[in-house]
Amino acid sequence: MSRFEPRAKGVPEREEAVAEDAEQGKTAPAEKASAEPDYFAQLLSLKAEFENYRKRVDREKPELRRAGKAEVLLKFLPIYDLLQMAHGQIQAAHADSDLARGMEGIFKEFEKIFKEEGIVVMDALGRPYDPLRHEVMGAVESESPEGTVLDVLQAGFTLHDKVLRPARVRISQGTKETRTKEDV
The pTM is what? Predict the structure, then answer.
């Protein structure tokens, strides 16, 4: 390549410059060569950084989608709770009405969407208290062992085995007799 042929704009080709200088009988001093930036090494480094970035983004995309989906679904849960309370009252007062059948259809659609998206309603009643899955709203004396969930005040949900919303529960304190025996 002669000196008059166009090169890539802004990127000198070091090997060609050294070859031209060697043809003309010039030798580049070692000091001058080490002071010049090594554009090829920088290019390789940038290429590797970009590849790593692309791979990381590809790995993070599904997790970001799941997080976004969880955020949106979490916003619909209060609506689901209100509809569920209304459904219970309608079933108690007007079980055979068109309104009750319409509510059944709404809940079938909710169940279908929950299944498609991987949402599962937690089954907390009668199970031991789990601080990662339950939020205690109160404790009462009962014959059940201490820490057993007696009442579910608000249903909890999981999304792909991760807690989306903890269940709000009332748990057993045990009986007075069992508590006094433990205190002694």
Answer: 0.63
CA distance 36 to 45: 17
Decide: 156 and 74 in contact? Cβ < 8 Å: no
How far is the C-alpha of 85 from the C-alpha of 67, rounded, in Å?
Answer: 28
Residue 98 confidence (pLDDT) = 87
Residues 6+ apart with CB under 8 A from 14: 36, 38, 39, 40
- Find where tokens 């209304």 sit: 86
Domains of the chain: 134-183 (2.30.22)
Length of the chain: 184
The whole-number pLDDT of residue 32 equals 54
The separation between CA 24 and the C-alpha centre of its own chain, rounded to angstroms, equals 64
Rg of the chain taking only CA atoms, in angstroms: 34
**What pLDDT is attached to residue 171?**
92
